[in-house]
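Continuing the batch. This is chain 6 of the set; chains 1 through 5 are on the previous pages. Same settings as before, nothing changed between runs. Recording input and output for traceability.
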Amino acid sequence: MNREEDYLALRETYAHLLGKKWTGNRLFGCYEIIRDYYREFLGRDLIDFNARKVYAFTDDAINEEDGKWIYKKEWGMDDGGVDFTILEKNDILLFRLYTNPLGGGYSAPKGRAPNHGGVYLGNGFMLHHPYGGLSEIEDLYDKGVVAYQISCVGAIRGNTT
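Output for chain 6:
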């Protein structure tokens, strides 16, 4: 299959998770799509950090969910980004995103914690819910989404047992 066929197959498989509306600033929307995915496809009910008002992917939150860092970029270091070959389907990708190159706009509490996440679907594709938008599948190899390529600061392998 080519990338377009892969993308269309993924859209069919995850159609019911796509196009969900952002529910507002009170909820960490990208985490909700991760929770939905883990619940449905892995049978794992992740902790509702939204209810606790945890709005960033902190080390404490990751440890509490028994996650394991498989890639972690030190903030401010340019290491070329995550190597997609180390990722496995179901890994959680974490990003430190901004809406402009000067670092303003889309920020996260608690210092430098990642402020966006998605589920790696394999072959360079990610399911995520962008701030203020609709849930979607992103082709991380697409040159048009360079923001995700350069802002990935971590990858977590969740305990799926």
